[in-house]
Amino acid sequence: MPIYEYYCYDCAKRVNVFFRTMSAASDEAAVCPACTGRRLRRLVSRVRMLRSEESRMESMADDASLMSGLESEDPRALAGFMRRMSDEMGEPLDPEMSEMMDRLEAGESPDAIEQSMPDLAGDAGGGMMGMDGLG
């Protein structure tokens, strides 16, 4: 079932219009589901590529700028890496992690953050994500 995005000039909304078949899909046949208006302009929909977790991780590992920041032990690079990983995995950061990322991006050392937020260290005992030498 094809789905197309349209802008409706009658109700000024962006809407999705469903057609039963590809051959039935046309701008002339499109009707706004919100107001039943017929003055619609078809929009270019965003395209999203489905990638495996392995592919996303390989992409991050191949990003030289991302890896060089981690190798130089830059707290800002660590925060950027963690935010990108969150985005790639589709896992939003909880409030504590978000605070930690903000503090890393501000240049605060991981050791100082860990001392003020001991619950984030968990049971690892090896410093923040095993990178207790950063800072």
How does this structure look, described?
With 135 residues, the protein is an alpha+beta fold. It has two domains: 3-42; 53-130, no CATH class. It contains five helices and three strands; from the N terminus they run βββααααα. A three-stranded antiparallel sheet has the order 2-1-3, with no helix packed on it. β1 (3-8) and β2 form a beta hairpin. α1 packs antiparallel against α3 (75-89), α2 packs across α3 and α3 runs antiparallel to α4.
What assembly state would you assign to the polypeptide chains in this entry?
Answer: single chain
Radius of gyration of CA atoms, rounded to a whole number: 23 Å
Number of domains: 2
Strand order of the largest sheet: 2-1-3
Low-confidence stretches: 123-135
Number of helices: 5
Mean pLDDT, to the nearest integer, reads 77
Shape: elongated
Largest sheet, strands/sense/barrel: 3 strands, antiparallel
* N-C termini distance: 54 Å
Strand percentage, roughly? 5-15%
Q: Give the topology string: H per helix, E per strand.
A: EEEHHHHH
Q: How is this fold's topology laid out?
A:
Blueprint: E1 3-8, E2 13-18, E3 40-42, H1 53-62, H2 64-71, H3 75-89, H4 95-105, H5 110-116
Helix pairs in contact: 1-3, 2-3, 3-4
